[in-house]
């Protein structure tokens, strides 16, 4: 048997291909994170519910992407998020407010 000291993680990882990827889990995580960060979770959750699953993921990433990394092997999700990351990177590069 081995035991190791647990090291603190500066990011949370959620595998959206697994059971934690369902909408109810993500909505609950959004509520918990928003409360911890002093954000209005009602507004965020309402926004997350206004579209399909991809909209829910993008909204979650928009609000909590600095704290949470969503992980997937789904090519559709990866392609969709690649375009968002490129957009965000260009905004930072050119100092735009996006």
Description:
55% of the residues lie in helices and 8% in strands. The chain is mainly α and 98 residues long. The chain has a domain at 12-71. A two-stranded parallel ribbon has the order 1-2. Helix 1 runs antiparallel to helix 2 (41-48). It is globular and about 45 Å long. The model has no long low-confidence stretch (mean pLDDT 83).
Unreliable sequence segments: none
- Give the overall silhouette: globular
Number of helices: 4
Order of helices and strands: EHHHEH
Number of strands: 2
Order of strands in the sheet with most strands: 1-2
Distance between the termini: 51 Å
* Mean pLDDT across residues: 83
- Structural classification: mainly alpha
Biggest pleated sheet: 2 strands, parallel
Give the percentage of residues in beta strands.
Answer: 5-15%
Roughly what percent helix?
Answer: 55-70%
Based on CA atoms alone, the radius of gyration comes out at: 15 Å
Provide a short characterization of the protein structure.
The protein is mainly alpha-helical. The chain has helices spanning 23-37, 41-48, 53-64, 75-93, and strands at 12-15, 68-71.
List the helices and strands and how they pair.
Layout: E1 12-15, H1 23-37, H2 41-48, H3 53-64, E2 68-71, H4 75-93
Helix pairs in contact: 1-2, 1-3
């Amino acid at each position: 048997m081995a035991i190791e000291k647990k090291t603190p993680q500066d990011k949370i990882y959620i595998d959206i291909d697994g059971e934690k990827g369902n909408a109810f889990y993500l909505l609950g995580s959004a509520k918990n994170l928003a409360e911890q960060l002093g954000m209005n979770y009602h507004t965020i959750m309402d926004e997350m519910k206004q579209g399909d699953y991809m909209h829910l993921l993008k909204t979650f990433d928009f609000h909590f992407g600095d704290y949470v990394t969503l992980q997937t092997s789904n090519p559709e999700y990866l392609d969709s998020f690649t375009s968002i990351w490129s957009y965000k990177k260009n905004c930072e590069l050119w100092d735009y407010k996006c």
